[in-house]
Amino acid sequence: MLCQDYYASALIRLSDKPCARAITAAKSIGYKELPLPTGLDIPSETGQPSAPKRGLYRYLKPRPKEMRFSWIDTDDCRVYVEDSIE
Question: Does 22 map to a domain?
Answer without folding.
Answer: yes
